[in-house]
Structures are given as C-alpha cells and as structure tokens.
Write a structure and sequence with these properties.
- This protein has 2 domains: 30 residues, no CATH class; 34 residues, no CATH class.
- With 75 residues, the protein is mainly α.
- The protein is elongated.
- The chain starts with a helix and ends in a 5-residue tail after the last helix.
- The chain contains 5 helices and no strands.
- It comes from Lacrimispora xylanisolvens.
Length: 75
C-alpha cells in the first residue's frame, strides 16, 4: 500500500484511505476462511423477489414464494 500511495494518483489514494480506515475487516478477510456470502446471497434474492412482486399480490404469496425459493423447491 505504501508503494501505491507513493504514486500519488487521486483514485488510488482514495482506495488506500478506504482500506486503511477499515484495516481490521481487511485483515479478517485475509486470515479467516469463512465469510457472510451465503447470507448476503439470500438477502439479495429476497430483495429482488420483492422488487419483482411489488404491488402485485399479498404478503402471504410473497412469503410462500420466498420460502419455496429458499428451500430449493423441495416440495
């Protein structure tokens, strides 16, 4: 990071400052093999389904559709 900071390019300086501000999260991402990707994927799928179904049907249908998707259509 010091070599990149020595280049003094505004965009790279902004990136390096962001990394330094959250250096603990960067170190954890490097050292630990687990992450929250599975939860983030589920949240993204739920939000997409909500946007698609907005104003069309009831909450019960939205709930049923989300549960069906999360269980992998095992019914």
């Amino acid at each position: 990071m010091t070599a990149v900071a020595a280049l003094q390019i505004d965009e790279l300086d902004t990136y390096i400052n962001g990394l330094n501000a959250d250096i603990d999260a960067v170190n954890n991402g490097i050292h630990y093999k687990y992450n929250n990707g599975l939860a983030e994927g589920s949240v993204n799928k739920i939000k997409l389904t909500k946007r698609i179904m907005y104003g069309r049907n009831s909450f019960q249908l939205l709930r049923a559709k989300l549960l069906l998707k999360e269980t992998g259509n095992k019914f």
